[in-house]
Amino acid sequence: MSERSYETSLNTHYGRAGLIDIISTALKASGKNLDAIGPDDLSPVAEFHIGGQQATLELAHIAGVGKGMRLLDVGSGLGGPARTLALRYGCTVTGIDLTEEFCRTATMLSEISGMQDRVTFIHGNALDMPFEDGSFHLVWTQQAGMNIEDKARLYQEAYRVLALGGRLVFQEILRGSVTPLHFPVPWAREASLNFLREPGEIRALLAEVGFREMVWHDVTAQYLTEYRKAARRNANPASLPPLGLHLILGPELGTMLQNVVRNFEQKRIVLIQSVLKKS
User: Fold this and answer.
1) Neighbour count for residue 177 (Cβ, 10 Å)
2) Does the pLDDT at position 238 exceed 90?
3) What is the average pLDDT across 159-187?
4) Which of 60, 113, 164, 174 is 20 to 30 Å from the Cα of 265, by its Cα?
5) pTM beyond 0.90, yes or no
6) CB distance 278 to 166 below 8 Å
7) CB 99 within 8 A of CB 15
């Protein structure tokens, strides 16, 4: 697939047109006052990963996120983690995402929640990031790498933009010992957008780039329970709450989550949290 075709396919998968209006309508239907929206109100749709905001906070804890840090969120989506990190930890966050509609919506959601001075979103490619060397204390990516084929270049770019002693932090679904996957899943309706690698391959790539591993946790068992709950909640599209990830992925979300559960149970995928240091 050419780079242009890939970007088009990714934007088709995630970039539902008019997302800000869709989310605004859902917020009103949830009883929210649009003149008094905070980042936490947006979490049900903007924390686009399993475990939601709680998983973001858990990952931030093991990563040692702190006040005054400059963070880069790679694959920032609708900006949920970026706003959570900026609000809870007093850091500034720049997000980069290849889905243009995500960047536009993330910027608007940050404005209506009063976070525009602490978070910024850029439409761009994680394999060729428009940042100077050593720009960030921490590079963060949360279930975004599944859509990126060139892992070596992704990690090289993360290493480049990190300051000496900075950290790469991720929560990612990786390939398990059994193949192939059951599709559709939230990150890919079919195999052309799915670029999972096995944990051993990822660890070797990271070491080759120069990262020193500080934390490597297989959290599959912990979050399989969360995926099962999410699959049950989304099994019947008619009973969904106004605000949720179905606003992005549509009525297929229930099937996607059921397939994620099957893939976990059959050892086709694993979920890893990791912290690595640029020495």
Assistant:
1) 11
2) no
3) 98
4) 60
5) yes
6) yes
7) yes
Query: How far apart, in whole angstroms, are the C-alpha atoms of residue 59 and residue 30?
Result: 28
Q: Which residue has the tokens 């397939």?
A: 259
Closest CA to 168 of 148, 154, 178: 154
Alpha carbons 110 and 15: distance in angstroms, whole number = 18
Percent residues over pLDDT 70 in the chain:
100
CB-CB contact of 197 with 141 (8 Å): no
- Rounded to whole angstroms, the Cα distance separating 29 from 249 reads 19
CATH T-level topology, domain 3-35+64-278: Rossmann fold (3.40.50)
For 86, 104, 169, 210, 264, the CA distances from 214, given in Å and listed in that order, are 23, 35, 10, 13, 25
The one-letter code for the residue type at 211 is F
What pLDDT does residue 84 have? 97
The pLDDT, as a whole number, for residue 191 is 95
- Between the CA atoms of 275, 92, 246 and 61, what dihedral angle is there, to the nearest 10 degrees? 40
Q: Report the amino acid identity of residue 130.
A: P
Q: Is 249 exposed, middle or buried (0-12, 13-18, 19+ CB in 10 A)?
A: buried
Q: For tokens 């989310």, what's the residue?
A: 23
Strands of the sheet with 269-278, listed across from one edge: 119-123, 92-97, 70-74, 136-142, 162-175, 269-278, 211-218
Sign of the torsion formed by the C-alpha atoms of 221, 226, 230 and 233: positive
CB 101 within 8 A of CB 17: yes
What single-letter amino acid sits at 70? R
**Is the Cβ–Cβ distance between 115 and 169 less than 8 Å?**
no
DSSP state of 116: T
pLDDT, tens digit (0-9, with 9 covering 90-100), for 245-279: 999 999 999 999 999 999 999 999 999 999 999 99
